[in-house]
Amino acid sequence: MGVSGLDLQAAARACLGAFNAIGMIYFYNTVKTVYNASTANWYILLQLSQFHMIFYASRTLPNFMAFPFVWISLALLLKNKHKRAISLLVFAGVTLRAELLALAGTITLATTFDNYKKLKLLIKTAAITGIAASFVTVAIDSYFWRQPFIFPELYSFLFNIVAQKNNEWGVQPFGAYFQLYLPLLLANPATLALAVFSVTRNSKLNRLIYAATAYTALYSFIGHKEWRFIVYIVPIITLAAADGVQSVPLVIPGASGQRLFKPVLAAVTGLAFIASLFKAYASSYNYPGGYALQAVNQMAPAEMPVAVYMDVFTCMTGATKFGQSNEPTWTYYKTEKEEDFREEWNKGLYDFALVSAASEPYALILNSTDSWVLRHIVIAMHGVSIDPLKQFAQQILTERSFKGYETLVDRTLTLGDSIYVYERVHSAGDISAWYCQQCRSKDPERIVAGDAGIANFM
User: What is the pLDDT of residue 336?
Assistant: First the structure.
């Protein structure tokens, strides 16, 4: 039995997760050396309670492919090895995520604003590294894309920042990063408060905090905002919070208040960790595209030429290249441009369509003169309801009963139809040649995204 695409995806994610774990451990050990064991332990407790940092550490987003460089760079900054740190950030910025160049810039300015000689040295280091990294990324990407002079991060900058095409994905107010996304990433409300307190105590981390604030403010001028664009500053703020933990008891009046502070903070952090576990479980229901792709792969022989269309929503929710297990005989279409899609549609090109109710292909199928048969409905999470929690609390108070506690989490999730898997039936002969009789039930099969466990690899 050969290695499947999902096996390769699991292996890739395991490697990326390991690299990020090693980077976090290296940063933790550096904190222990530069500060002390207590600060390092509080740092790791606060960090592990943050959902996004842990959940996405193994996901093959370019932001987290760049994060191992960020961990090491931040550790080097704590050791005052600025040249190496800036070199790593610039290299990762040129090759993986361009926004790291902005972070490298704010860190350079914040750490050298009173040392012109050092500033010139870091600028020279950044320039040399940037030029070298440019040759590396162009050589590698041009080879894999089979085209001359492919420079992904330069094209991304021109497309998203200069042409402002990213605004087509939505814009948010200037303060969204500070008011919405930063508290979301930190998870624990005490973390931001402790970081601010640490700054007021003239922490030795202040310059990095200033750099992180300047970086966030700079990116706030861009209309389109996502939490992953500022995720790199989270370790800095979390470390500042951990540093602040050591100083708070010194300003709390009364011995009892001083004794209670750390146990209360530990309890709040524990609640944040539980909330992160809930988010991780709920997120397993957020990848219906992966389940839909798995289902369609089993609906026809792998050796028969088949054309599958997947809409944008399907591709954004787990339908990846790794899951296209019937290539090269099958062709998987992910056409986004309306004119190209309509041309393919009018030719009757597709045999299967994986679509969401909000997409144009779904409307075309419903109004099509061709015969389309609904084969599968993939159910996914639509939201979270607190009503079951209220009912359970009332049950405890009135009946002194914990009955149903084992299904409480599942009952808080609101599930609904998400992706429809359609088959285009050309003739009765086609359908009998493609499918066994028992697979052709009158009613479509309903698949719950999350039940089979593959979402962990999406």
Answer: 81
Number of domains in the chain: 2
On whether the CB atoms of residues 318 and 9 are closer than 8 A, the answer is: no
Sheet order of strands, 371-384 included? 330-333, 306-310, 352-356, 413-425, 371-384, 445-448
Q: Parallel, antiparallel, or unpaired for β 352-356 and 413-425?
A: antiparallel
Among 232, 249, 283, which residue terminates a domain?
283
pTM, whole model, 2 decimals? 0.89
**Alpha carbon distance, N-terminus to C-terminus of the chain:** 22
Q: Which of 232, 253, 283 is the last residue of a domain?
A: 283
List CB contacts of 381: < 8 A, sequence separation 6 or more.
Answer: 282, 285, 286, 413, 414, 415, 449, 450
High-pLDDT (> 70) share of the chain, %: 93
Q: Give the chain's residues under pLDDT 70.
A: 1, 369-370, 426-443, 451-458
Both 278 and 407 in one domain: the answer is no
pLDDT, residue 370, reads 66
Whether 272 and 146 share a structural domain: yes
Please check whether residues 370 and 295 belong to one and the same domain.
Answer: yes
When computed from its CA atoms, the radius of gyration of the chain, rounded to whole angstroms, is 26
Q: What is the pLDDT of residues 396-430, one digit of tens each?
A: 999 888 888 888 889 999 999 999 999 988 654 44
Count helices and strands in the chain by DSSP H and E runs: 23, 6
Residue 46 belongs to domain spanning: 5-283
